[in-house]
Amino acid sequence: MLDIDPTGILVRYNVKLEGELTPDEIARELFPSDILLRNIVEAVFEGDEDEVIIALKEAVSAGKDPITLIDDALMKGMNIVSQLYDDGVLFLPDVIIASHAMTDGIEYCKQISGKTHECKGTVVSYVVEGDIHDIGKKILTVLLKSNGYEVIDLGSDVPTDEVIQAVLKYRPIMLTGTSLMTTTMYSFMEVNNRLLENGIRIPFVCGGGAVTQDFVMNYELGIYCEDAAVVPKIADMIVQNRGIDELREKFHVH
Ligand code: B12
Fold it and tell me: Could you tell me which residue ranges the B12-binding domain spans (predicted)?
């Protein structure tokens, strides 16, 4: 007779083992206590696109700011899914479904935020070639727009040539690059060099997953920050004519 341990199979099919918590139970411990936020976080976790919108509508009509909900609820839900995926509790399909629900939520918040500002400046944003992880970029795009910037969003898996052409065409105040994988982040270096070859010295703000401050410090135009929510603050300083050294001084960890 084969000596098979059924644990893995039971876990895979979400069968509760004695004394063990199910993924839902583990996640619930991490949900926020505010019921309005909790409903949104739970809907992202469940990957329920309709419920995300219903819960967002409910929170907004109770007085919550749609842009703040991106950080406080949509991202919170996705971070829980990411954490449980890293811990081996959830699987890739769970992540994909949750990311779709989160993206729908971001689009909804963007539509209803209704903030209209005069345009403070143009920013070009992209995810590096070979990389399709675009949730962080979507967040920073919405945050920049809601803070009065026009964003030329080049999407994900963008070749270096396309980035350079867009910068030459739109002459932005800064470029933002996202990379979530150690295998893709090296193209930041190439973009930096091509910008310099073309005589362009704009801040190149880079972030996402495996990217670190030490890595970004290796190239002249690079500015690093961990959280996309900080990017509008960087843009505000650039508009006030602050240079790359000053931005590094202010936003880098010393
Ligand atoms: C969601 C996800 C996916 C989704 C992506 C959906 C999408 N549309 O983005 C799907 C399922 C498609 C996917 C696919 C793959 N994935 Co994946 N994925 C993840 C996961 C679980 C979460 C990432 C995420 O969206 N987090 C939520 C957002 C909000 O966080 P974020 O992107 O980090 O953004 C935050 C900051 O980084 C920052 N930020 C982001 N961008 C920027 C930009 C600037 C300028 C600044 C300042 C800040 C900033 O601000 C954000 C908010 O604070 C991570 C694991 C993890 N825990 O991170 C793996 C992960 C990134 N994936 C990984 C891998 C390997 C893959 C695949 C190769 C898997 C496979 N074998 O097929 C493919 C890659 C396909 C490709 N070519 O890109 C690895 C990468 C390993 C590495 N270090 O290189 C990770 C780390 C998982 C792991 N532990 O192995 N993935």
Answer: 120-248
